[in-house]
Write a structure and sequence with these properties.
8-stranded mixed sheet, alpha/beta, 4-stranded antiparallel sheet, 348 residues
Length: 348
C-alpha cells in the first residue's frame, strides 16, 4: 500500500493492543478507542492541543516529567504544582481546586517512584467527575514492576470516561521506534483522530504491522517478561553497588519498579547538586540532577540534599558497578575538600 492510511492506526495493531492492554494493564476498551501515535510525547502534545486553551489550569505532579510540563507551558496553560509523597500524588490537596486537566503518573510516579493506592485513585476520579476535568494518565513504564504483578492502570476503574491513558513502546523496545498509543474515552475519539491527521497523518504502516504480529503471536509479551527479568537484575546490581561503595551515604527511593532510581546524597547540599553531576560526568558517569524536575523550587521538596536520577535499563551489571564506584569517588573527593560538598543531612 502506497497511499495514506487512517490517522488512528492500523486495525491489526489496535486490535492486538486491545487484547494486550486488557491482559497486562487491566484496561477496558474497544479497539476503536485506541489511537496510535509517535511515542508518548506526541500523545501528550495532542492532549494539550485538543483539550487545553491558553490560560486554562493544568495540575502537574511536583516533581514531574519535564517534557510534559514544557508541552503544557508551550500551549499557554496555567500550571499548578501538586505535591507528591512516597505514595504518589497527594490527592487530599485536590479539594476546592478547579482545572481543565490533571497530568499524573499513578503506576510509577516520575521521578520519585510512588504507586498511587486505590483510595487516592478513587479520590482523584471523584474529583474529576465533580469538576468535569480530564485526567491524563502517563503509563510510561507500567510493565516494569518487580516482585509483584504490574498494577492495573487508573483507566481500568474509570466508570465515567474522564481518563485518557497514554502508553509507549519506548521502554520495552526502543525510543527509536517512535511508537505509542492513546486510549481515549469514546467521546474524544473523533476529535483526536482528526487532530492526529492534522499533526502528521499517521504512523508508519509497516512498523505497525510488524508490532501487531509480535503481539498477536505472544513474542512481545515474552520479550517484556525477559526484559523485566534483566532489568530486575540490573536494579539489584545498582542497589548492591550503592550499598557497597556508598554505605550509609545515599538514600535510594522508588526502586520497586521502573527503570531508574532516585539517589539522595545527604552529604551533598542541594545547592551543589549540579556541581556533583558535572564532576561525575567528567569521570564518565552519566547521572541527572533531580532539581530541574521541581518547577516550584523548594516549595514541595522534602529533602535539602542533592538528588540524582540513576537510570540502569541499558547498562550491564559490570558497567553499573564501575559507574557507582566512580560516583562514590566523586562524593568522597568533595567531602575531603571540605568545601562545596560539605553540608547538613537531608531533612525528612
Amino acid at each position: 500500500s502506497l497511499s495514506y492510511d487512517a490517522p488512528e492506526g492500523e486495525p491489526a495493531l489496535r486490535m492486538a493492543l486491545q487484547g494486550y492492554l486488557r491482559r497486562a494493564r487491566g484496561l477496558v476498551c474497544s479497539a476503536d478507542q485506541i489511537v496510535v501515535v509517535q511515542g508518548s510525547q506526541q500523545a501528550i502534545d495532542l492532549c494539550a492541543r485538543v483539550l487545553v486553551d491558553p490560560g486554562e489550569t493544568v495540575l502537574m505532579e511536583e516533581p514531574c516529567y519535564l517534557m510534559a510540563r514544557r508541552v503544557f507551558e508551550a500551549q499557554g496553560a496555567c500550571l499548578q504544582e501538586m505535591a507528591v509523597d512516597e505514595q504518589g500524588l497527594d490527592t487530599s490537596a485536590l479539594a476546592g481546586r478547579q482545572a481543565r486537566l490533571a497530568y499524573v503518573t499513578p503506576s510509577h510516579q516520575f521521578p520519585l517512584g510512588g504507586v498511587l493506592p486505590i483510595g487516592r485513585r478513587q479520590q482523584l476520579l471523584a474529583w474529576a467527575r465533580a469538576t468535569g476535568a480530564w485526567i491524563l494518565e502517563d503509563d510510561y513504564d507500567g510493565e516494569f514492576r518487580y516482585g509483584l504483578r504490574p498494577i492495573d492502570a487508573l483507566q481500568s476503574i474509570d466508570e465515567v470516561g474522564c481518563v485518557i491513558h497514554v502508553g509507549t513502546f519506548s521502554k520495552a523496545l526502543s525510543p527509536q521506534m517512535r511508537m505509542g498509543y492513546l486510549v481515549l474515552p469514546p467521546s474524544l475519539v473523533p476529535v483526536f483522530r482528526e487532530a492526529r491527521r492534522l499533526a502528521d497523518r499517521h504512523a508508519p504502516r509497516l512498523d505497525q504491522l510488524v508490532l501487531a504480529a509480535l503481539i498477536e503471536d505472544g513474542s512481545y509479551e515474552r520479550h517484556v517478561r525477559a526484559a523485566r527479568r534483566r532489568n530486575e537484575g540490573r536494579r539489584a546490581a545498582l542497589l548492591q553497588a550503592l550499598e557497597r561503595h556508598l554505605p550509609g551515604a545515599v538514600q535510594a527511593e522508588g526502586s520497586a519498579s521502573g527503570l531508574h532510581v532516585v539517589a539522595w546524597v545527604p552529604a551533598v547540599h542541594q545547592r551543589d547538586e549540579i556541581a556533583l553531576v558535572r564532576l561525575a560526568r567528567e569521570r564518565g558517569v552519566g547521572v541527572r540532577p533531580i532539581s530541574p524536575l521541581y518547577a516550584a523550587g523548594d516549595a514541595h521538596r522534602r529533602q535539602s540534599c542533592a538528588g540524582l536520577v540513576l537510570g540502569y535499563a541499558s547498562l550491564q551489571p559490570q558497567a553499573i558497578e564501575q559507574g557507582v564506584r566512580r560516583l562514590a569517588g566523586v562524593v568522597r573527593d568533595g567531602q575531603k575538600k571540605g568545601g562545596a560538598f560539605e553540608a547538613p543531612p537531608c531533612r525528612r
